[in-house]
């Protein structure tokens, strides 16, 4: 019986530690390699396998935390089954960094994942050391409504797109996703993967995450973001036509207020830069992590 108080005391000490290291509900993590910590966040509908080449490049030198957003690419929806997706995801990644006592890891995010990285730098600057944003803007909806777009102005259109996606037949949804991906990936192999991940994603999670990105504007917060940010963006004059020349100007203008930034243009690529120009992307990643 004398052991009982000691056992209870040990349990009381252990339980808070177990609670603080609770498993995430918005994403799962696969940890690979050893070295300084790097968190990799995929984009809308994507699998963490989007980083396969980057993993091969880095896992001998870095400890990689490969995020899989719940509800994307066949992963169960988990806590993303209802409500907002992007801001709760960002908060849970910040909690993951704190719980695992990671020391200001580098964050690399593609598309929605890059936007989430920017959100981390803005709301939890103590958590991250530096961020690479791959082909994402601080306010996505300037692509829809131009530089003067506002959250209030875009909400009706964003809501309509969300509701339309939710109401589509499976056949219409599949056709729409395939059509969208052909405008985002040039690589045939990459296109096949992106389409498969998209079709395996939970439509409700995708629709609500898309709405979140369309209706969250971080431009006004940029002057206060002191974290070093690298923005990698794609340009393809053949595919984009006259818009190709405009892309660089768009990224320069939209990130103009960010004080500590590096912009990297990757030519002959669409949105999935890592698929279309793997060597150029690998070079940008190495430069970012140096």
TrEMBL record:
Annotated signal peptide: 1-21
Molecular function terms, GO-annotated: hydrolase activity
Superkingdom, taxonomy of origin: Bacteria
One of the Pfam families matching this protein, by short name: Abhydrolase_6
InterPro entries named among the record's database cross-references: AB_hydrolase_1 (IPR000073), AB_hydrolase_fold (IPR029058), Carboxylesterase_BioH (IPR050228)
Hydrolase in keyword set: yes
Keywords: Hydrolase, Signal
Domain AB hydrolase-1: 38-284
PANTHER family on file: HYDROLASE ALPHA/BETA FOLD FAMILY, PEROXISOMAL MEMBRANE PROTEIN LPX1
Protein name: Alpha/beta hydrolase
């Amino acid at each position: 019986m004398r052991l009982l108080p000691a056992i209870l005391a040990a349990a009381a000490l252990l339980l808070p530690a177990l609670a603080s290291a609770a498993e995430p509900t918005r994403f799962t993590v696969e940890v690979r390699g050893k070295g300084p910590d790097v968190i990799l966040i995929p984009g809308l509908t994507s699998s963490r396998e989007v980083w396969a080449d980057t993993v091969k490049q880095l896992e001998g030198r870095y400890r990689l935390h490969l995020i899989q957003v719940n509800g994307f690419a066949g992963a169960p929806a988990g806590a993303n089954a209802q409500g907002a997706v992007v801001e709760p995801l960002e908060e849970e990644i910040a909690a993951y960094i704190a719980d695992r006592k990671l020391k200001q890891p580098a964050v690399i995010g593609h598309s929605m994942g890059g936007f989430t990285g920017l959100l981390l730098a803005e709301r939890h600057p103590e958590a991250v050391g530096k961020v690479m944003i791959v082909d994402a803007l601080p306010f996505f909806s300037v692509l829809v409504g131009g530089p003067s777009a506002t959250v209030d102005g875009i909400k009706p259109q964003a809501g309509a797109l969300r509701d339309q996606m939710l109401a589509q037949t499976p056949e219409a949804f599949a056709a729409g996703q395939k059509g969208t991906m052909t405008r985002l990936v040039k690589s045939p192999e990459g296109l096949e993967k992106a389409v498969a991940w998209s079709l395996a994603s939970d439509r409700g999670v995708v629709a609500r995450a898309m709405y979140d990105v369309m209706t969250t504007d971080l431009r006004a917060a940029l002057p206060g973001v002191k974290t070093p940010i690298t923005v990698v963006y794609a340009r393809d004059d053949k595919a984009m036509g006259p818009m190709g020349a405009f892309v660089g100007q768009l990224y320069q203008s939209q990130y103009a207020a960010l004080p500590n930034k590096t912009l990297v243009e990757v030519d002959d690529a669409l949105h999935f830069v890592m698929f279309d120009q793997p060597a150029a992307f690998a070079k940008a990643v190495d430069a970012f992590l140096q």
